[in-house]
Amino acid sequence: MPDVKLNDLQKQRQDKLERMKSLGLNQYPQPNLSQKSSISEAREMMDKSVEVAGRLMSLRGHGKILFADLHDQTGKIQLFFQEKVLTDKMSLTKLLDLGDIISVCGEVFTTTAGETTINVYKFEILAKNLRPLPEKWHGLKDIEERYRQRYVDLIVNPETREVFKTRTKILTEMRRFLDDHGFMEVETPILQPVYGGASAKPFVTHHNNLDMDMYLRISDELYLKRLIVGGFEKVYEVSRDFRNEGVSRFHNPEFTQIEFYWAYVDYEVLMNFTEELVKHVIQTVKGDLKISFQGTDLDFTKPIERVTFTDVIEKYTGINIDYIKDENEFKNILKEKNLKVDMSGIYGLGACFDALYKEHVRPKIINPTFVCDYPAEMIALAKRKSDNPKKISSFQLLVCGTELLKAYNELNDPKDQADRWLEEVALEKKGNETAMQFDSDYIRALEYGMPPTAGWGMGIDRFTQFITDQSTIKDVILFPAMRNEEISTELDETQLVGLENPKVIIGQVKAVKEHPDADTLKIYQVQINKNQTLDIISSCKNIKEDNIVAVALIGSLVHAPEKGILKIKSTKMRGIESPAMMCSPLELGVDDKHDCVYILPQDLSDHVGESVNKYFKK
């Protein structure tokens, strides 16, 4: 068969569409098919006449007979076109192509091979497929197209459709569980004059008529708690939230969250309730409490282990954070313990504890675990424990080193809340871009009195990712955030970008030397495998000896702020060759920072030379 270009195939299909017009056929008819049968129903209607509609996914035969496979959202069925039944209409089958949307009428029978089939006596083309479907839509080279053209992914990959059916079941079951326990679903503003409820960077927009900047919500927490003040005792919302931060395996700037708030209970009640809810959803959706995520078996039949934040940090680092009074003391202890923590952009003692936890502790928590009682500096909206005001009554559910949900007793003391927010404002002045804002209206609401309340928030995308065993959050979001298509067309389709690129490997800094001809540059000796080191030149100031870094080798692709995509090549910097590059958060695609090298977890030192994407979890 001669090689036919894609645009030639498209032209052939366009010609068929024009042929329909010349024959007096409606090219895009709108019949009333409200009474049609689904394909799954039709398969059970043996020897009866049925009408079905769907997409042609297979065509075979020629001349006086033609077989085809028709798919709809319930399944597939074989079609049998034959000239002795269709007579002069048989010639119209020459207008059919794979991917066409058609309706058919016919009688259901079973072939001698045992295949349930419709003997077609009438058919109509409802929508012509003008772009040939890919023969294969799997594999690394197509991964970006799959996300960008999700409609094609859904057509040709039934397993993709199953993931999103499961996502819907998860949301349905969570709603049902909350409804059955007396919670009321509500809606709160997406556009907010003051963003709050989480530590995150917002998207900013402007309301022209009101002439004021507004923010896409980062959380619905503060509005839901206003409803608790107003007299509702159990409320929840399934919300779209937005955070102007990095894209990673577990993060998307637009995501779905469930938050609920329950008056007159504490976080201990909430922990028991959470365990019941999570197990109910997993059992109902999966049919089993033993599931697997990326090769790790997870057993939810057992009671979920409960550990304190202080104890789990001491277990994995040997540091008792209860005795640390300020940031300087924290940094000194890190030096004593020879622990590397990326402190770039870290402000405040709570953020220091969080950075230590995320880098050296959280990745090691694999089995379902409640981590409880965080330091009060870490969550400005959480209530202090009455028996230990340095701690907050809080917990997170951790699985495979990743947070699935966060909960705590809600701070209802307006004076304490105002003071805690003033501390956040001070951190913002120091440069913390994710500090919480002072919301005076919320303080006013608390002054009317909010009953003791416990609250909870879960990212549905990430929870779905675990239940459906998907390696990246993009696989559970129908239309994930993507770079401009104009940029992506510059890519070699056989490669991936940034963190996902196999040529971006784990390296370890072994020595630091001054550049002989540039005060702002240093030469870093970076080990990239057991037998090889590279001298890499960089101007970034946050790199230290023994740091674990992501090294982009020659030929790899990384994200770039202006060009979009950068292909790494050997370059000279002030006369000295630099044969690779240590990646910034932006270049990896995990954040928008570009003025520093991204420091990887120290425990990846055992995997020097291997692709970063095999081990790194953001």
CATH-level-2 architecture of the largest domain = 2-Layer Sandwich
**Which percent bin holds the helix content?**
25-40%
Coarse morphology:
globular
> Major sheet, described briefly?
8 strands, mixed
Distance between the termini: 48 Å
Low-pLDDT stretches: 137-141, 487-494
Reading off the top of the CATH hierarchy, the class of the largest domain is best stated as: Alpha Beta
CATH-assigned fold name of the largest domain: BirA Bifunctional Protein, domain 2
Task: Please count the helical segments.
Answer: 16
| Structural domain tally | 3
- Radius of gyration, Cα only, in angstroms? 29 Å
- CATH homologous superfamily descriptor of the largest domain: Bira Bifunctional Protein, Domain 2
What would you call the structural class? Answer: alpha+beta
Total number of beta strands: 30
Into which percentage range does the β-strand content fall?
A: 25-35%
Mean pLDDT: 90
Q: If strands are numbered along the chain, what order do they take across the biggest sheet?
A: 6-10-11-20-19-18-15-14
Provide structural commentary.
Helices cover 26% and strands 29% of the residues. It has 618 residues and is α+β, with helices and mostly antiparallel strands. The chain folds into three domains: 6-127, OB fold (Dihydrolipoamide Acetyltransferase, E2P) (Beta Barrel); 158-304 and 368-476, BirA Bifunctional Protein, domain 2 (2-Layer Sandwich); 485-614, OB fold (Dihydrolipoamide Acetyltransferase, E2P) (Beta Barrel). It has an eight-stranded mixed sheet, sandwiched between helices. Strands 21, 22, 23, 24, 29 and 30 form a six-stranded antiparallel sheet that branches. The protein has a five-stranded mixed beta barrel with strand order 1-2-3-5-4. Strand 2 (65-72) and strand 3 form a beta hairpin. Helix 12 (414-430) packs antiparallel against helix 13. The longest helix has 23 residues, at 158-180. The radius of gyration is 29 Å and the shape is globular.
